[in-house]
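Practice problem: predict the structure.
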Amino acid sequence: MAERNMHRQALDRLGQEIVSGTYPCGTTLPPEPMLCEALAVSRTVVREAVKSLVAKGLLVTGPKLGTRVLTEESWNWFDSDVVRWKSRSGLTRPFLRDLQELRRVVEPAAVRLAAQRATKGDITELEDAFATMRLAIERGGDYVTPDLRFHQGLLRASHNAMLVQMGKALGALLRTSFEISTSRVDSALHSLPLHRAVLDAVVARAPDAAERAILVLIDAAAQDISAVFTSRRKLPSLSAPARTLPAPQR
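Answer:
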């Protein structure tokens, strides 16, 4: 357990330093003994951390290369750690633009299939997620987690194995979008009926209406994100628990 914790800490520290630019793309990491000293861990822990970062696309190793930092194009942006490190180091407009464009490609196709293939169990799960979102608005509480459940539930309801798998990979990216968009005052309240429109179209087995509704929802989230950036408000971090909505004033 202690060694696993040390590996996690070393991985987080090195990953964060790479993503934040402490070790810029194209540079070589310090020799192993120096990393051991800097991180206060054994060579075994350093090697395991490096191995994990290679798997995430941040590093490449080789006899003549050493351990070199790769460009961002090689990083696995579907990896929750990479997204979390990015959120800590500072999210950018291009990163969030790419995320919104990805959503516009993936989610409409998934929702069209969901409107044709969703089972009773899928609908029940979506209704439950929606009810929890509504409760968070009415009483205060975690809105982001059920929002994520709703969107991943739509991907599962497509009953396309590739899209379902992508839903798992998209989790951290979707949470990034939801955390930022819901940080705008009343954005959750305004987005709730847009979610309802998507769900109603899926229930009605109306693929065209479902596709239109999800595009409206995605574009509304993009507008919220743009407004948050314009206001220069501090962006939420994925290292913290999901943001909660305040209870309405009576």
